[in-house]
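Record pair follows.
FIRST:
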Amino acid sequence: RDRMIWDVEYIPEAQQDFDRLDGSQKKIVRKAIEKVRQNPLPVEEGDYGKPLGNKDGHNLTGLLKIKILAAGIRIVYKLERQGEIMVLVVIGMRGDDEVYEIAEKRK
């Protein structure tokens, strides 16, 4: 099938998350986003996104995540399928729970 490269948008808070990273982390995050925006759909649809659903009492339905294991960074995003936009919600250097709490507030 034809691959669409999705547009990427940051909600303002995710832009702040990104701005707080250091240079090497920014590079790693940019590279991950570049890769994922080519295949951001959920894994069930054959792409990279891991759907979050309900996590530890947080309702994260509609959100997906990517983990950059080597850097300990998690990126939470949602998809606007209409315009093929990958919307970044959280870029976090923290344990899962805190990232999910923040994601739930921001979505």
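SECOND:
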Amino acid sequence: MATAEGGAAPDGLLAARAREGDRAAFAALVERHYDFIHRVAFRLTGRRDDAEDVAQEVCVRLGKAVAGYRGGAAFTTWLYAIVLNAARDQMRKSARETAKAEAFGVHALMAGEAGAAADDPADALWAAVRKLPDKQREAVTLVYGEGLSHAEAADAMAVAEPTVSWHIHEAKKRLKALLGARAGEV
């Protein structure tokens, strides 16, 4: 969707139009940000299938949530919060399903994806990040995976900036412990 000046319409304008029922504006927002949504979801969940489910859920939620976007923050900062919430829901659902599978002794058949490659430190790091508690995982994903400042991550997570800094600090300590055994192998 273009503006009268010939450039792409800014997110705020598209959101305002979508809020008023403009389906083309909503479609333009989804199209513009789908890869972003999927990338963040994948970094949080670590599984393509889960990331796809999260991305689809975000698109559904966005249809209702766009009415609440007022432009106080960048659209992507506002969108991070929706992705984080959908990823949390998906991970809780996955955890419940895994617990059920383990209870019936078929976890290995249902796991579906192998762990990180032993020779790829980046994959091992992100696999370890996904083992962190929710808030730490989200802070690390937003700051290091998405390049947000602590203030921007705080907006997306709806917490204070020092809280993000604390989550990052705690995550670094946990990651050092989680990856310490791996470092001993090298």
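COMMENT: The two ends are 51 Å apart (CA to CA).
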